[in-house]
Every structure is written in C-alpha cells, then in structure tokens.
Amino acid sequence: MLLTITTTRKPATDLGYLLHKNPARPQTFDASFGKVHVFYPEATEERCTAAMLLDVDPVGLVRRPKGSGGTLAQYVNDRPYAASSFLSVAISRIYGSALGGRSKEKADLVDSRIPLEAHLPSLPCRGGESFLRALFEPLGYEVEATNHLLDARFPDWGESPYFSVTLRAETRLQDLLGHLYVLIPVLDNAKHYWVSQDEIEKLLRHGEGWLTSHPAKDEIVRRYFKRRWSLAREALSKLVEEEEPNLDEEEEARAFEEAVVEERISLNEARLGSVVAALRSARAHRVLDLGCGEGKLLQLLVKDPQFEEIAGMDLSLRSLDTAESRLHLDRLAPKQRERIKLLHGSLMYRDRRLERFDAAAVVEVIEHLDEPRLAAFERVVFDFAKPGTVVVTTPNSEYNARFENLAAGTFRHRDHRFEWTRSEFQGWAGGVAERFGYSVRFVPVGPEDQEVGSPTQMAVFSR
Ligand code: SAH
After folding, report:
1. CATH number at residue 270
2. Which ligand 1 atom minimizes the distance to the CA of 362?
C-alpha cells in the first residue's frame, strides 16, 4: 500500500521540513499492523516526492484477536495493498505534525497553499468513480482515476473496485492530509478495527473547516462510522451548519511568544483575576472554561467554593494532560474531584456537554480561531451552549506599540490569527450580543494607557 505526495513549489525539498522527514534519510517505523517506510524517490529543487509505504502483515493481523475463527478471507484479503484505514492511522502517527499544521523550521510554509499531488496506486473506491469525484472535487481537487480490471487475464470478470488515483490541488499540506485521513476509509468502506467513541473527535478535528459544508457530508459520516449509527448520529449532530467562507490562508505572524512579550506587567495574573471577578459577580455556580489550555484559570476556580461545578474544554490533548497534572486531579478528595471535569472537544462544533452552565470563560482563545470561522464559534457558544454569562478576553492590538520587544505590525503569539483594536472587538461583540439576545459591557484589563488603552480587552455578555 503506497501513498506518494509530490510538490513542485521551489525549493521542492522543503516538503521534508513540512513532513518532518529528511529527504536524504529513508526511515522505517513499527505499527500495530506491520511496518511503515518513508522515503523520497525524487528530491530536487524543482520536484520532490515523499513516499509512504505500508508493509501490512495480514497474517499478523489475523493472529492478534484470538479465537476469531479461521476463514480463508482472513488470510487472503486486500489489506496489504489496498489503501485503507491503516493508511489513515499511519498518516496521523507518522505525518502527525504535518497533519496538525506544525513546523518549527517553516512555520510560514505550513499556512501556504502550494501545488500538491497525491498518488494512490490502489485505492478501493466503493461507490465507483463518481463517488470518488463527489468526495474530492468539491474540495478543489483535480481528480484523475484509472480503474483496474479484477484480473487482466480474465477481462470477463469485469472491473474491480480498485483505482489508481491522482489528486492535484493548490492547497495546504495539512488540508490534503486531513482530507486523505477522513476520506480514504470512507472510500474503502471496509470494516475498520478502530471505530470507537474517540473517533468522533478525530473526525471532527480533521474535518474542521471543510466537512460541515461538504455536499456529501451525511454519506461521509455514515461510512466513516460503518453502521455504528449512534456514533454517526452524534457526529452529525455536532456539525453545526455554517456557511463556510473562503479562507484566505495566507496569514503570517512572526514568532513572538506572548508570555515573553507580556511578562513585564504580569498581565496574565491581572487577566485571570478579572475573569474570576466577573464570574463571581455573575453569581455563577456552574462554570465552563472554553479553550482552558493548561488550566491556569481552572486552578483559581477550584479554590473558590462558589463554583460548584467546573468544566474545562480544549482541543489540545497535550494541554489537557498538563491541566490534569497541574490540578492534581488524582490526589483530590472524591467530593472535590466531582466538581471538576476536563473535556476534549472543539469550539467549532456543537457539543451537548456544554449546555446548562451558568457562565463560560473564553480567555485568550478567539484570536487562535480563523476569523472566518468565528461564526461557527458564536453559534456553538451563544446559540447552543447558551450560558447566562460569557466572559471573553483577547489582546488589544493598539497596545502592541507599547511592548518594546514586539516589532511593529506583528502579533503577540505566532498562533494568533488576528489581534483586534478596541473598536474592532467592540464591533464584533456588539454584533454577537444583538444576534443572540445578550447585553455586553467592556472592561479594560491591565494598566490603562491614555492613548492606546489596556493590553487586554474583556467583554462580559449577559442574557
Ligand atoms: N485559556 C488559556 C489558553 C489560551 S491559549 C489561557 O488563558 O491560558 C488558546 C487555547 O485555545 C489553546 O489551549 C488551544 O488549544 C485552544 N483552542 C484553539 N482552538 C480551539 C478550538 N477550536 N476548540 C477548543 N479549543 C481551542
């Protein structure tokens, strides 16, 4: 089973940085289903191709689940050569950083659309060529597909479900990998060994930004979960319908760590203090920390008995792990332990776990979301979760001029997608309040400068 990815964007060998795999060094990884080899059949300035070869061990696969019978099909099957969910597993494990859009050396390239070509010599397309096209063409791919006969020596046997497929687009590598991750198992439609609850999160994460508006969304979700209707229903209910505006992905933020920039005034403490004060005065008992990160706010909230039920939610599992150890959840008395929950999820999708809370804090999170996707965030928080009070903080970009170690025109953190002036933030928040039936007031956080205001701006919405 083979997947090659080619780019012609010069210098093409930058593909190695994007994939975190050195073109000069072939590598082999162990996987539960066999071995995965990564190598570059070509690597020049003009054209570079990374190949991922899965060496699936079909016998080993059968041996693992004990006592599962011994039919011939378990030994003679297409798994070694047909692109299947194993390929998705390999993409997420071995190209994980690229799939997550991370690159230390080439941060700006990650967000650039570059000419990419993916080739799958043996992709089972159950549903035929028309279904293959219905999946990839709406995502902007040029699709080239050649069907293979079941057996060239016996043309009467007819065509097989296997195609050689080439997909071409000018896109971000991260998007290409996300599309392949979700859509290869959808096309294969064979039994996965991995359909489980946390697959919902994976589908939602890798489908972010394109699945909601995909015309074949329902069929994709149903096949992805293979007749596990309850999971498919749950995933579908989370896909909030939103017009997905065309994203201009060209955004660049120079790498300045926010913490270093803001250190001088211990802004973080001031910010968290203001948020806790707003939650207290709202008389909230059940509170959410959306985009809780490593749990700094949660640590303050658990200390105050007014907050009887506290939930932190974040997209990043690594941050949640850190939050869990910071909060010493394993050492808390059972009564205290019951008060606090950590949830893995995305603010881009409707989530019933977020309903029936008195208040939600969204601290330094919105500027991490793509601006055109704020509409989805707004519906998730203000329309579906609908807490009585919502506290949102974000940098005030006017204040950036006062940070000596921040070059003009740059953001405070390299992940920021935007930073707003006071009037931009107030304009946005005013619109949200009006659309969703909230009132809103604004509170400056940190030392106020006469001309440019305070470093952080906070909006307190109430219903
Ligand atoms: N509130 C924390 C963390 C701020 S950093 C603090 O003040 O310290 C922004 C956080 O938003 C990160 O932890 C990031 O993982 C999270 N995040 C980004 N996009 C998200 C999304 N779509 N859904 C949920 N969390 C998200």
Report:
1. 3.40.50.150
2. 1
